[in-house]
Amino acid sequence: MASPARDRTGPDYARLIEPDRVHGSLYTDPRVFADELARIWYRTWVYVGHESEVAEPGDYVRKSLGLQDIIMTRGADGAVRLLLNRCAHGANLVCEAERGHARSFRCPYHGWTYRNTGELIGFPFNQGYGGKGTIEAELSLASVPRIASHRGFVFGSMAEDGPGRERDRRLPPAVRARLHLQRHAEPDRRAL
Questions:
Q1: CA-CA distance, 112 to 85, in Å (whole number)?
Q2: Is the CB of residue 72 less than 8 Å from the CB of residue 63?
Q3: Considering the domain 46-179 in this protein, what is its CATH number?
Q4: Where is pLDDT greater, at 57 or 175?
Q5: Cα torsion for 37, 69, 88, 81, to the nearest 10°?
Q6: Contacts of 191 (CB under 8 A, 6+ apart)
Q7: Domain spans in the chain, listed from the N-terminal domain onward
Q8: Count of CB atoms within 10 A of residue 5's CB?
Q9: In a 3-state reduction of DSSP, which class is residue 49?
Q10: pLDDT in tens, 58-101
Q11: pLDDT tens digits, residue range 96-119?
């Protein structure tokens, strides 16, 4: 098999994939991994976990979506959410335990505290930010833009829109309801 093509545009996949074998660089080339992240992990629906892992309100489990550390949590409203495990202030992890039960997550660095729904509920020296009620809505934990559940299997997509979204919209309403495709990030959990 020929050695992989090396150029600025990325790997030449046509040369790397043959009918009876693939070139080993597909498993080791950082450019291939970057392409996978951009084209698959951060654009399409990816399986994250199962609703049974967060059976009760307050339950959480850490997951990953591509290279992103995610907290899958169930809020008091019963909705399953996928939150990025990064403080909006300093980007530190707000949850270090692999799983557990918590109503809030606290950044150990500056003490910013978030509800398990992602809302910022407390931060030290709030007068320096204009006092309580000034920045909380802007600095909540980021969440995975799209989340859907099918028979308890939770999927997330880092893309606001992307492959699958248009197909989901074209499904008849009865089929969408049967598949339980829901926008968990929205408080009313409307179907897609």
A1: 13
A2: yes
A3: 2.102.10.10
A4: 57
A5: 100
A6: 173, 176, 177, 181, 182, 183
A7: 46-179
A8: 15
A9: strand
A10: 999 999 999 999 999 999 999 999 999 999 887 889 999 999 99
A11: 999 999 999 999 988 889 999 999
